[in-house]
Design a protein that fits this description.
This protein has one domain. It is about 65% helix and about 0% strand. The protein has 5 helices and no strands. Helix 1 runs antiparallel to helix 2, helix 1 packs antiparallel against helix 4 and helix 2 runs parallel beside helix 4. The protein starts with 14 loop residues before the first helix and ends with a helix.
């Protein structure tokens, strides 16, 4: 069985963030579909910018402010994910060489999310349970794709 087929039981204080991870992986899929359907890169980039402003930015901020500090800030896993956040933000901000930056973004985001789910969240979850930390349960404001009119992943170039 491959790791993606494994159901990971999440501590209640991490469940909302894990749900958002699924949405972020869906963003990666949409970028790949956009490439396969030869969608104009500016359309894909516009959606990425919208998704960042409405979901990903808050997601990163909550993890950086409330979740990562559960572990020591010098922990190698924390240093890794903070570095990845910086790279992802730079890729999203990039407005030139869209084909390269979107391709790198899709790969970086997927790798980042899978690492957090399979490695980092597992360690954080164990720490929460061991220390019985009182971590705020997040009610994340996730925008639905219905609010985004250009469904390039469904309709392609049309």
């Amino acid at each position: 069985m491959i790791q993606s087929d494994v159901i990971i039981r999440r501590h209640k204080k991490l469940k909302e963030l894990s749900k958002q991870h699924a949405l972020i992986l869906h963003l990666c899929w949409k970028i790949r579909i956009g490439f396969k359907k030869s969608v104009e890169l500016k359309r894909i980039k516009s959606y990425v910018n919208w998704f960042y402003a409405n979901t990903l930015k808050q997601h990163f901020e909550i993890k950086e402010q409330y979740i990562y500090p559960i572990l020591d800030k010098q922990d190698k896993l924390i240093r890794r994910v903070l570095k990845e956040h910086r790279r992802i933000r730079r890729l999203i901000a990039k407005e030139e060489s869209l084909e390269i930056s979107l391709s790198l973004l899709e790969e970086e985001l997927e790798r980042h999310i899978r690492f957090e789910e399979w490695v980092l969240f597992k360690k954080i979850q164990q720490t929460i349970e061991l220390k019985e930390l009182d971590v705020f349960i997040f009610n994340l404001d996730t925008k639905e794709d219905d609010e985004w009119g250009d469904k390039f992943w469904e309709y392609g170039t049309g």
